[in-house]
Design brief:
Layout lengths: L4 E7 L4 H11 L5 E8 L5 H8 L4 E3 L8 H15 L3 E4 L8 H6 L4 E5 L11 H7 L4 E8 L9 E8 L6 H24 L3 E4 L2 E4 L2 E2 L4 E2 L3
Helix pairs in contact: 1-6
The protein binds 5-O-phosphono-beta-D-ribofuranosylamine.
C-alpha cells in the first residue's frame, strides 16, 4: 500500500477480533485505519467497542430488509460510498450474496474457526468434538461466492485434549484469532502479502498452500 490501508470491519456480535485489530493499530503493530465498523445487529457488543475507540460505526439492521439481496444491496451501497481497501468479516453472521462478493472481488477477508476445508459453516467446535477430532484450528481466507471456500491465507492448529468443552476450544481458538487477523492485515499493509486476480502472493511468491501461523 502506498497510502494508509483502510478497513471496514463487519461484525454481528462480541467483536473480540475487532478489538484485537483496534489494539494492533493503537499500539503501532498495524498500519491501517478502520473507516467504519458495520453491524447487522444493533445490539452487537462490538459497536460499543467502536464507540469507546472513537471509530465511526453504522448499523444496517437485518430486520429492516425483506430479503438477503435487499440487505446486501444496502450494505454494498454503503461500502461503495466509504470505499475501504479491504472488507474484514469479523464474526459477521450472514452469508453474502454472490452479487455482493463480486462487487468487492478479492477484497473481502474472513476468519473461520476451523482448519478449512474441514468444518465449513457453523458450530465448528461442537462438530469437531462430536467427531472425536484431536486437532482443530483457525483459518483466514479470501471470500468467494462459495461459503468458507475461498483461498486460504493463514492457518493455525491446536490440540484437542480429552475432556475439552466447546468453551475450551473457543478460548484456545480466539487467542490465536486475535494474533492472526492483525498479522494478515499488517502483511497486506506493508505489501508482504498481495492479492492479484484472486491469487495470493507472499513475499512475491505465489502462495500454493496456506501459511502456517508462527506463534
Ligand atoms: C470468531 O470465532 C470467528 O472465527 C467467527 O466468529 C467469531 C467472532 O468472534 N467467524 P468475535 O465477535 O470477534 O468475538
Amino acid at each position: 500500500m502506498t497510502s494508509r490501508m483502510t478497513l471496514a470491519i463487519l461484525i454481528s456480535g462480541n467483536g473480540s477480533n475487532l478489538q484485537a485489530i483496534i489494539d494492533a493499530i493503537e499500539t503501532g503493530r498495524l498500519n491501517a485505519e478502520i473507516t467504519s465498523v458495520v453491524s447487522d445487529n444493533p445490539e452487537a457488543h462490538g459497536l460499543s467497542r467502536a464507540t469507546r475507540h472513537n471509530l465511526h460505526s453504522r448499523v444496517i439492521d437485518a430486520r429492516d430488509y425483506a430479503s438477503r439481496s435487499d440487505y446486501d444491496e444496502a450494505l454494498q451501497h454503503y461500502l461503495e460510498l466509504i470505499a475501504p481497501d479491504y472488507i474484514v468479516l469479523a464474526g459477521f453472521m450472514r452469508i453474502l450474496t454472490p452479487g455482493f462478493i463480486d462487487a468487492f472481488e478479492h477484497r473481502i477477508l474472513n476468519i473461520h474457526p476451523s482448519l478449512l476445508p474441514a468444518y465449513k459453516g457453523l458450530n465448528t467446535y461442537q462438530r469437531a468434538l462430536d467427531n472425536g477430532e484431536t486437532q482443530h484450528g483457525v483459518s483466514i481466507h479470501l471470500v468467494t461466492a462459495e461459503l468458507d471456500a475461498g483461498p486460504i491465507i493463514l492457518q493455525a492448529s491446536y490440540a484437542i485434549e480429552a475432556g475439552d468443552s466447546v468453551e475450551d476450544l473457543q478460548t484456545r481458538g480466539h487467542q490465536l484469532e486475535h494474533m492472526m487477523y492483525p498479522q494478515v492485515l499488517s502483511w497486506l499493509s506493508d505489501n508482504r502479502l498481495t492479492i492479484k486476480d484472486g491469487q495470493i502472493y507472499y513475499e512475491k511468491a505465489l502462495l500454493e498452500q496456506p501459511i502456517l501461523f508462527d506463534r
